[in-house]
Amino acid sequence: MLVLASRSASRQEMLRAAGVAFEAVPADVDERAVEARLGNSSAAEIATVLAVEKARSAALRLPGRLVLGSDSLVSVAGRRFDKPSSRAEAADHLRFFSGRLMHLHSAAALLRDGATIWTHGALAELQVRQLSENFIAGYLDGEWPAIGHCAGAFRIEGPGVQLFADIRGDMFTVLGMPLVPVLAALRAEGVLPA
Predict the structure, then answer these.
(1) Long-range contacts of 39-43 (CB under 8 A, 24+ apart)
(2) The pLDDT of residue 28
(3) How far apart are CA 69 and CA 107, in angstroms?
(4) N or C: which terminus of the chain carries fewer CB neighbours within 10 A?
(5) Average pLDDT of span 115-135
(6) Angle at 93 between CA 88 and CA 98, to 5 degrees
(7) Is position 166 annotated as part of the catalytic site?
(8) CATH number of 2-188
């Protein structure tokens, strides 16, 4: 059975809805340390490395098992944004995002015994509408602290959809994992029927 190296409810729900049997095993990765090590790498590269590192953290503990890792990173106006660590930081992020184009990079990786079998990255572009201070305060009243673990300070499947004027890209990518390519890779590995 596939191992998903993630606590993410949206990633787990995507796999369940697609009919993929899996066991969730949280990854043990210091994401900020990995980002610091990668320095000026692109958000797409960092998302892929983080997906690999998350899968590796579980794969090394579970010999012989196929492990799926995934990660998402947000960049706006050339700046990378981590998950907000406080409500005040989430508000600052939203103020910065207001009226700008958000690039959401989602990546996935499959590993077995620490060896990378497959990786894939995808991009979605989300046009953030102009956000008023009243909207930001009301939004955070309803969504904080749930969005504290979300890149971009939003859950697209909830009130976070109200942040955007336009979305270009695969909705699975926006949810945090490029699911269609993941399913193809799982078929190639014999986890799903061809």
Answers:
(1) 43/73, 43/74, 43/75, 43/80, 43/103, 43/105
(2) 87
(3) 8
(4) C
(5) 98
(6) 125
(7) no
(8) 3.90.950.10
Q: Check if the beta carbon of residue 5 is closer than 8 Å to that of residue 67.
A: yes
Choose the catalytic residue: 71, 82, 92, 166: 71
Planar angle of CA 155, 161, 176, nearest 5 degrees = 40
pLDDT in tens, 128-169: 999 999 999 999 999 999 999 898 999 999 999 999 999 999
Q: Which two tokens stand for residue 175?
A: 């949810």
pTM confidence score:
0.93
Structure tokens given for 159: 């009130």
pLDDT value of residue 190: 95
pLDDT at res. 67: 98
